[in-house]
Write a structure and sequence with these properties.
Keywords: Signal. This protein is α/β, with parallel strands linked by helices. It folds into two domains: about 20-100 and about 210-255, D-Maltodextrin-Binding Protein, domain 2, CATH 3.40.190; about 105-205, D-Maltodextrin-Binding Protein, domain 2. It has helices spanning about 1-10, 40-50, 65-75, 135-150, 165-170, 185-195, 220-235, 240-245, and strands at about 20-25, 30-35, 40, 60, 80-85, 95, 100-110, 125-130, 155-160, 180, 200-215, 260. The strands form two sheets. Strands 1, 4, 5, 6, 7, 8, 9, 10, 11 and 12 form a ten-stranded mixed sheet that branches. The protein has a two-stranded antiparallel sheet with strand order 2-3. Strand 2 (about 30-35) and strand 3 form a beta hairpin. Helix 2 packs antiparallel against helix 8. About 35% of the residues are buried.
């Protein structure tokens, strides 16, 4: 059935002769430059397998994060992955079926992580985060929650590069005490290249990762056709195989962002 649908799609006047042009960033274990100098990683493997069934195929290019996002915004590429859903992004992007679950959280030096971390403890803390990232968006949402409680906001230290060096600033006096990041990415970097005593202190958010397509370049019909391929690969267990290989989690059953670091309930007293 899927083959017939894709054949009809290929004969449709809406179909384009050019392959899908997709971009990724250096974001291991999801996407990175492999030993052959080509894009590799967990979600790259998933998307490449789906692209094998796409009539025109796909061209996947790895670019710096901000440049990749700008090309997607300007419609110079068809899509980018992996990206999380947000209401603001959905105004200009169409989203594929979910590829995997992602988690975000707060990292600190091991000396700091013996006691529970609450939202209130983030008040007035200096926190490192990558500029222009979804992590920054989530951290600013937590900052808004602090303000609504009448607490002083965090002091955000924005890094241009999302890399191990940014994490290691936790060990330097005078930098930030906390770092906010995608958990899989931060743990991958710490496991590969550092003896640093840096630990995950608190998981704060969970959401799914998707391929995000530019609405002006990819119609609803083309998105549905690509999602049919992903659905078949999911049903066959192929996408799960890639997740298991890379230690990623299967998608959440809904598209919501789950905030796990909520304000502490205020106690009430009888008069």
């Amino acid at each position: 059935m899927l083959g017939r649908l894709l054949l009809l799609w290929g004969l449709s006047p809406l179909a384009l002769a050019a392959p899908l042009h997709l971009v990724v960033q250096e974001f291991a274990p999801y996407s990175f430059v492999g030993s052959d100098k080509q894009p590799a990683g967990a979600v790259v493997e998933m998307v490449k397998e789906a692209c094998n069934y796409w009539p025109e195929g796909c061209q996947i290019t790895l670019l710096p994060n901000l440049r990749a996002r700008k090309k997607l915004e300007l419609g110079e590429v068809d899509g980018m992955f992996p990206l999380a859903w947000s209401e603001e992004r959905a105004k200009t992007l169409r989203y594929s079926r979910p590829l995997c679950k992602a988690s975000w959280g707060i990292f600190a030096h091991s000396d700091e992580t013996d006691t529970p971390l609450t939202l209130a403890r983030l008040s007035n803390a200096r926190v490192g985060v990558t500029k222009g990232s979804f992590s920054e968006t989530l951290l600013r949402q937590l900052d808004d929650a602090l303000r609504r409680q009448g607490l002083p906001p965090m002091r955000l230290d924005l890094n241009v590069n999302d890399d191990l060096a940014s994490l290691l600033k936790l060990e330097r006096q005078g930098r930030y005490r906390l770092y906010f990041s995608n958990i899989d990415v931060a743990l991958h970097r710490l496991n590969l290249g550092s003896e640093a005593q840096i630990r995950l202190w608190k998981k704060s958010h969970e959401a799914n990762y998707y391929i995000a397509f530019n609405r002006d370049r990819i119609s609803e019909a083309r998105l549905n056709a690509f999602n049919l391929i992903l659905s078949r690969l999911e049903a066959q267990g192929n996408l799960l195989r890639h997740r298991v290989r890379w230690g990623l989690s299967s998608p959440l059953p809904d598209d919501r962002l789950h905030n796990l670091l909520v304000p502490e309930p205020t106690s009430t007293h009888a008069n």
